[in-house]
Amino acid sequence: MNVSILLIILFVGAFATYLAGDKLASKVALFFSLSSLGCAIVLLNQFNAGENISVIHQWINQPNISFALLADGLSIAMLLLTLALTPIIIFSSFENEYKNAKAFYALILFMAFAMVGTFLASDGLLYYIFWELSLIPIYFIALIWGNGDAEERKKAVIKFFIYTLAGSLFMLIAFVYLYQQAGSFLLEDLYKLNLSSTEQLWIFLAFFLAYAIKIPLIPFHTWQASVYQKAPAVGTMLLSGIMLKMGLYSVIRWQLPIAPLAAKEYMYIFISLGIAGVIYGSIVALRQKDLKKLLAYSSLAHVGLIAAGTYTLTIDGLRGAVLQMIAHGFVVVGLFFISEIIFRRYETRTMAEMGGIRSQSPKFASMFLLLVLASVALPTTFNFVGEFTVLYSLSQINLWFAFLGGTTIILGAYYMLKMYQQVMLGETNTKVFMDVTFKEGFALVLILAVLFFFGMYPKPITDLITPSLENIITQINRIN
Amino acid sequence: MSTILIIFCVLAAVSIATAFLAIFSRNPIHSALWLVICFFSIAGHYLLLNSQFLAIVHIIVYSGAIMILFLFTIMLMNLNKENEVHKPRITRLGAIVSFCLICIVLILVFINSKPIVGEYITTGEDYQSIKVLGKVLLNEYMVPFEFASILLLVAMIGTVLLSKKEKTEK
Amino acid sequence: MNTNLALLLLLAPFLGFLFNVFFGKSIGKTTSGVIGTLAVFTSFLASAYFFAVIVANPEGIQISLFDWIQISNFKVDFGFLLDQLSILWLLFVTGIGALIHMYSISYMHDDENMHKYFAYLNLFIFFMITLVIGSNLLVLFIGWEGVGLCSYLLIGFWHKNQEFNDAAKKAFIMNRIGDLGLLIGIFIIGSLFSTLDYATLKTAIAGATDLNMYWISAAAFALFIGACGKSAQIPLYTWLPDAMAGPTPVSALIHAATMVTAGIFMITRLNFVFDLAPDVQNIIAIVGAVTSLVAATIALVQTDIKKVLAYSTVSQLGLMFLALGLGAYEVAVFHVITHAFFKACLFLGSGSVIHALHGEQDMRKMGGLKKVMTITFVTFLISSLAISGIPPFSGFFSKDEILMVAFEHNKILWFISSLASLMTAFYMFRLLYLTFFKEFRGTAEQKSHLHESPALITFPLIVLAILATLGGLISLPTNSWLNEYLAPLFTKVATEEHHFGTTEYALMLVAVIGGLVGIGIAYAKYIKQNQVPAEDAAITGFTKVLYDKYYVDEIYDFLFVKSINGLSKFFRDYVETTLTSLVFGLGQVTNEIGFQGKKIQNGSIGRYLFAFVLGMCAIVIYLFLAQ
Amino acid sequence: MNNILNEIGIENYIFLSTILFCIGVFGVLYRRNAIIVFMSIEIMLNAVNLLFVAFSTYHQDAQGQIFVFFSMAVAAAEVAVGLAILVSIFRNLGSIDINNLKNLKG
User: What residue ranges carry the coiled-coil annotation (chain B) (predicted)?
Assistant: First the structure.
C-alpha cells in the first residue's frame, strides 16, 4: 500500500458524496474522510516499520514530469493534520443546513484531496497543480455558502483568488527556470542544482511571493481577514487550519532547500518580517469588533511566528515550526468552530452583541476557555511546545528576535482574554444561549484532547518529523 | 529586345493597368470587367511560360466562374450605381502610403537578397504537359487533391446554406 | 515507592479538580468542598512523609517521568526534584492550602458555583506543586503559568462583574510580562549550558572554568523580571492589589501565602546563577527595598481592608527580595514562611470580618467588632503583632534578620527597610483599631447581623495564629534549624553565624522600637483622637496621591494600554486600509490598461486591415532587412 | 528547348507579381465596397499564382503549377462562401460598406 491510496479515496469520496444526494452527503463525506484517516494511520505504521510508501511514476515524457509522491516524516505529519482535521470539520458542520449540500461536501473532500496532494507531491509541476487545485474548492465554498452581503463577499473572495493565484504564478516561473536548469521537476534533482547566489535570490523571491501571500505574511495579508469573515465556518476552518500550513510546509520543503544561499544571506530580513507579523497581527487584533476577524488577525500573528521559526534554518526552528503548525491547526479550527457555535445561537459575530454567555452555558465556556488558553500557548498545551521551540530557535539567532517574538505571549494573552471577556463574561445575557449539543461538544473535546495529549507528550510527533527535518537541514547546508 | 520580351512587357502593362482600373472604377461592374481583362492578361503570362493547361484552367475558373459570380452578386445587390462614399482622406492617404511602403519593402527585400539571375537551367524534360501534371497530381498529391474536392463540396454546401433566405421571420 | 508517592502528591489535587469539575454540581456544595480539602490534605500528608525522608537523608530525590520537549542541544524531561527547598515549600503550600480549603467550605457556602471554586482551588494547588517540585526550569514554567491561570480564574470568579474580570485579565497579562522574562532567561541558560535541569545546571556551573559573565547576568536579570511579575515587585506590582477582587480565601492562599512567593522560590532555586551576577543582585536588593517602601506608603492611607493587606503583601515581598538581593536566601525563605502564616491569618481574619458584614470591605464602615468576634480579633491581633515585628512573634525573627543583613551590606537599604517596617506597624494597627475598636460605624441592619464566624472559619484562624506565634522558632538568631536544613542548597558557605555583639542587639532594639513607635502613632491617631479616615472626596494633598497609589495605574494605562490601543486603532483604520487599497490598486491598474486597450479593438475592419498590413511590413523588415 | 526565362528574366516576373500584389493590398485598404475588396484579394492571389508558375519554370518542376491548382480551388471556394456571406450581410444591413461591419467591437 502506498500513499496514492489516500488521494484515490478522497477523490472517489468527492464523487461519491456528490452522487449521494443532499441528504446523505454529509455522512458519506464523513465516512470517506474517516476512512482516509484510517488509511493514513495504517500507512504511518508501515512507514514506522521502515516500508517504502512513496510513489514515483513517469507521467509525461516531454517535458519530463513524474507522478512522484514522497512520504517522509514531515509529509506524514502534515497528512495526519489534514486528515484528522477534515473529519472534524465535516462533523462540526452537521448541525448546519446547507443548500445543495452534496456539492458542498464534495468540495470539502476535493479540497482535502488537493491539500493532501500538495503535502505529498515531490515533483514540482505535480506539486504546483495540486497547489492551485486546492484554490478552486475554497473559492466556491466561500463564494456560494459564505455569509454577509453577496456583493462584498464576491469582492473579497475574488480578491483572494486572484491574489493567491497571482503569487503562485511567480512560483511557476521559478519552476520553469529550475526545469531548464535541471531538466526535471523532481525535488531531488532540484536539490542537486548548483545555482549561483543571484539565481537563488530570484528563485527564493519568486517562491516567497507565492508563500507569503498564502501563509500570509505581512504586508501580503490583506485578503485574509475579509475572506475569513465572509467564508462559511467550514471554509474558514479549512483555510486557516490546513491551507495556511500549505504555505509554511512549502517553505520548508521547497523554498529553503532549493535556494539555501539566499535564505541564509537574507535570513534577518525574513525573520524580521515574520516577527513584524506577530506584533502587527496581535496589535490589530486588539481592536477588532468582529469575532472572526479577530481570530484571523490572531492567526496572522501565529503564522508570523511560525514563519520566523522556519527562516532561522535551524533544526529547532523547523521542528518548532512544524509542531506549532499542527497545534495551531487544531486550535484555530476549534476557535472558529466556537465562533460558529455562537453564531448558530445569536446570529451575530459582533462581539459587542455577545457577553454574559458563561453563566448560561458552563460547558461551552470551559471548552472555549481551554481553547483560548491553548491559543495563548499555556504550558501543557501543544501550542506551548511549538512556541517554546520556535522562540528558542529565534533566541539562538538573536535574543532580540526571541524577545520581540515573545511579545506574542503578552499581546496574545491580552487580545484573547479581552475577547473572552467581551464574549463570555459579564452580566447574564438576556438572550438565551443553549449549552453545546452533544455533536458540538464531541468535536471540541476531540480537538482539546489532541492539544493536551501532545502538549504533555509531543514525543511521537517529534520523533516522526525530526529525521526528515534533519535531511532538509543537510540539504540547506550542502553549499556554504 | 526580343519579341518575347515585348510581349511580356505589353502583357505586364495590361495586367497592371487593368488591375489599377479595377480598383479605381467607381462602378463595380466596370471593376469586374477590368478585372476580367486583367485575368486574361495573366493567362497570357501563363501561355508565355508555356503552361497552356494552366492558362486554360485559369480562364475557365477566374474569368469564367469567379467573375461571373461577382457580376451576379453585383447585379443581385443592384450595386451598379456609383454611390459608394469615399473613405476619409486620411484613410486614402494611409492606403497610398501603405501601398508605397509595402512595394518598396518587397522590392528592397528582393534586391537585398542578391539573387543570382541570368543563369537558367534547361533540363529538356517535359514537366508541364497535361500528362505529367496529371501524373503528379494523382500520385504525389493524391490526398490533397481529394481534400480539395471535399473543400469545394463543403464550400458549395456552405454557400447554399448561407444564401438561402431564412424562413422564420424575426 | 517514592515515584508513586510523588505522583500521589502531585495528582491528588488534580483528581480533586477533575472530580469537582465533572461531578461537583451533583454531589452538593459541602461534599465538593470536603473532597477538595481532602485532596489537598492528602498532598500535605505526602509532603510530610517526604519531609521525614529528607530530614533523615539530606540527599534530594530526583524522579524523571518521560521526555517532554526535544531541543537540538538538550532534552527537557518531565521530572521532579524533591529536595529541602521544594519539600519546605510543599509543606506550607499544602498545609496552608488545606486550611484555606477548609475555611472556604464555610466562607463560600452561599455561592452557587462552589464546586467550581473548589475545582479551581485544587487546580491551583496542583500547579503550585508542579512549580515547586519540577526538576527543571520548564516544569517550573508549567506551574508558573498554571498558577497564573488559576489566579486569573479565581480573581474573576464572580465573572458577572466586569471590573473583576478586568482585574483578572490585568493580573494574567502582568504575569505574562514576567513570564516572557522568565522564558528569555530560560533561553539564555539553555543555550549557555545546554540544560535546564537544576542539578545538572549546578554541576555545570560549578565545573565551568570560563563562564560568560555577560550572558549569565543577562539570564539572571531576565529571570528576575519573571520573578518580579509573579511576586509583584516594581514595576509589575500593580496587579496584586487589584487581584483582591477575588474571594478573600483566594487572596489569602494565592495572593499572599503561596503563588506570590514563587518568584522567591525560583531565585532561591537558582541561587548559584544569581551568585554569579552581583550587579543583578544589587538591582534585586534595590528593587526590593524600594518596593517595600512604596507599597508601605500606599498602604498607610488605604481604606479598603483587603487593599491594605494587599499592599502590605507587596511590601513584605519587597523585603524578601531585599534579602535575596543581598544573597541571604535562607533569610528570605524564612520570611516567606513566617509571612505565609501571619499574612494568611490576616487575610482569613479580614475574610471573617467581611463575611460577618456581608461583603463590606470599607474600614470606615467597621469598628467595634472586638466584642462580637473575639476569636477573629485575637488571631488578628497576634498576626498584626507578628507582621509588625514585635517579639516574640515569628515576624520579629524573620524581619529582624532581613534588617540585620541589610545593615551589614548597605546602610541606606537598611534605613529604607526599617522605615517600611515602621510604616507596616502603623498601618496594621490602624487597620486593627479601625476594624475592631471603638463603635460600629456601619448600618443598623448590618449591626444586627454581626456574629462570630462558624468553627470552620475560626479553626484555620487559630491554627495559623499559633503558627504565626511560634513560627520564629525554626530559625532563632543563635541557633537556626532552618539554615542548617537549607545548607545543602547553597554553594556559598551558609551565612556565617551571627556573632551576637552589641551592634546586633542594638539593631534588634531599634527594630522593635520602630515597630512600637508605629503602633504608638496609630494608637494616638485612631484611639486617642478617635479619627476616622476621610471620605473619598475629602482626601487632598499628598494623602490623595498616596490614596490613588501614586497614579501608577493611570500612568501605565496611559503609557501602555492607551498607546497600544491607539496604535491598534491606527493600524486598523489606516495601515490596513492602505494595504488593502494597494492590493486593489494593482487590480485597478490592470483594469485600466484593459479598458484603454479595449478602445483599440473598435471593430472597424478597415483599421484592422491597416494594422495587419503594417504588421506584415514590420515582420518582413525584421526578417529580411534588419540584419 | 529553350528556357523562356532566358529571354525575360525571373526578376521581371518577381517585380510584376510584387506590383500586382501591392495593388491588391492597396485596393483592400483603399476601397470600402466589400465586393471590390474581394476583387483585390483575387488580384493578390493571382499575383502569387503568377509567381508560382514563374518559379515552376525556373526550377523546371511541375510542383509550382500543382500549387496553383490548389490555390485556385481554395480561391474558388473562398469566393463562393465569401460572396454568399456578402449577400446575407447585404440582406441584413442593406449595404456592403465594410465600415458598417463593426460588430467585432470588444
Answer: none
Question: Would you call D41 an interface residue with chain B, using a CB distance cutoff of 8 Å?
Answer: no
Residue D51 lies in domain: 7-99
Q: Does a structural domain hold residue D39?
A: yes
Q: Are A30 and A90 in contact (CB under 8 A)?
A: yes
Exposure letters C239-265 (e unless 16+ CB within 10 A, then b): bbbbbbbbbbbbbbbbbbbbbbbbbbb
Kindly provide the ipTM of the predicted complex, given to two decimals: 0.77
What distance lies between CA D106 and its chain's CA centroid? 29
What distance in Å separates residue C594's CA from the closest CA in chain B? 27
Q: How many CA atoms lie less than 13 Å away from A446 in the CB half-sphere?
A: 18
In angstroms, the CA A255 to CA A206 distance is 9
The number of helix segments (H) and strand segments (E) in chain D equals: 4, 0
Tell me how close the Cα of C579 comes to any Cα of chain A, in angstroms: 7
Q: Look up the CATH number of the domain holding residue D88.
A: 1.10.287.3510
Cβ of residue D32 closer than 8 Å to a chain C Cβ: yes
Phi then psi dihedrals of residue A149, to 5 deg? -60, 130
- Answer yes or no: are the C-beta atoms of C215 and C188 closer than 8 Å: yes
Give the closest of D25, D29, D99 to C604, CB-based: D99
The DSSP string of B99-126 is HHHHHHHHHHHHHHT----S--------
Cα C92 from Cα C464, distance rounded (Å) = 11
Q: What is the mean pLDDT of residues C171-188?
A: 90
CA nearest neighbour of A32 among A43, A40, A44 = A40
D93 touches chain B (CB under 8 A): no
Give the lowest-confidence range in A54-68, C613-627, D54-68.
C613-627
User: Splitting chain A (480 residues) into consecutive groups of 10 residues, what average pLDDT does each group show?
Assistant: 88 92 89 93 90 86 88 90 92 86 92 93 92 92 87 89 90 92 87 86 92 88 88 90 91 90 89 92 89 91 92 91 93 92 87 84 89 90 91 90 90 90 84 85 92 90 90 85
Number of domains in chain D: 1
Q: pLDDT category, B87, cuts 50, 70, 90?
A: low
B98/C621 touch (CB, cutoff 8 Å), yes or no: no
- On whether residue D47 sits in a domain, the answer given is yes
Q: How far apart are CA A158 and CA A163, in angstroms?
A: 8
Q: Is D34 on the interface with B (CB under 8 A)?
A: no
pTM of the predicted structure, to 2 decimals: 0.83
Whether chain D lies against chain A with 3 or more Cβ pairs closer than 8 A is: no
How many angstroms separate the CA atoms of C412 and A279, rounded? Answer: 42
D104 within some domain: no
Distances (CA, A) of A76 to A53, A133, A242: 10, 20, 14
CA distances from C506 to A102, C292, C323, C424, D17 (A): 89, 23, 20, 20, 130
Contact predicate A386/C178, CB 8 Å: no
C-alpha to C-alpha distances, C437 to A175, A179, C364, C376, nearest whole angstrom: 86, 91, 12, 13
From C299's Cα to the closest Cα of chain A, the distance in A is 29
Q: What residues of C are in contact with residue A466 (Cβ under 8 Å)?
A: 70
CB pairs under 8 A between B and C: 23
Q: Which residues of B touch D91 (CB under 8 A)?
A: 165
CA angle C14, A414, A379 (to 5 degrees): 30
Which residues in chain D have their CB less than 8 angstroms from residue C615's CB?
A: none
Distance (Å, rounded) from C-alpha B96 to C-alpha A464? 78
- Interchain contact, D29 vs C603, CB within 8 Å: no
Q: What is the DSSP string of C139-182?
A: HHHHHHHHHHHHHHHHHTSSTT-HHHHHHHHHHHHHHHHHHHHH
Residue D88 in domain: yes
Counts of helices then strands in chain A (DSSP H, E): 21, 2
**A chain contacts of residue C142, beta-carbon cutoff 8 Å:** 379-380
- For residue D64, the chain B residues in CB contact (below 8 A) are none
